[in-house]
Amino acid sequence: MRTPGKQRLRSAVYGLYERRLARSLSPDRMPRHIGVIIDGNRRWARAAGDPVSRGHEAGANKISEFLDWCDEVGVKVVTVWMLSTDNLTRPADELEPLLRIIEQTVEELTSIGRWRIHPVGALDLLPGATAEVLKGAEAATQNVDGMLVNVAVGYGGRRELADAVRSLLLEEAAKGISIEEVAERVDVEHIAEHLYTKGQPDPDLVIRTSGEQRLGGFLLWQSALSEFYFCEALWPDFRHVDFLRAIRNYAQRERRFGT
Description:
Homodimer. By secondary structure, this protein is of the alpha/beta class. The chain has helices at residues 4-23, 41-47, 52-72, 92-112, 128-141, 157-174, 179-185, 188-192, 240-252, and strands at residues 33-37, 77-84, 116-120, 148-155, 205-208, 227-230.
């Protein structure tokens, strides 16, 4: 068991290291767009002997803190994956409290008034109340001159691509263009124009917590040239120093963009 004196010393050393790390970062090497897969909430709760909903609450509380860190270093866009399409199949006794937590979190992010909120996902798959909160957040923050925050709720990369192709075909059909003509001239730019994140820069850096080293369908199209950083910490335990390490790791890489 640590004594109060040892705890104070550890805290002081940790603070010194954190400040040194922050000073070492170059403003010219910051990612414009960070995507984050917030993973490990349920494991965090189970390890503490708490209900799963407590883990989701702890994870939700971390989001605004993470956005503050991104804001501080000049990130322009953040995409936070809060709920996947696969998560929608979870038992009702877990899913319903989770949706309420998401609604509350989005409302709190909106009330901060510093960020533009943009929902990305299949809103038609969500309960009406949740979809309305997401739409309301976007409307309420559309004129905010600040960091753009994509809240990915009911999001799946495969579903996004299917929606993009469907939207493209419907748009072309409305112009009277045949399916054969569309097939002949469609290219990657046409599909990109129909993604949930259309008009945004693709993520430079994707962070995933909890030690899992996979995307799980997150921003499949957009992350083709992204850098990835996998962190062992469960999302509720993700610290400022973990964030700074991710930024430093990104800044030290030589990006080749597929060449």
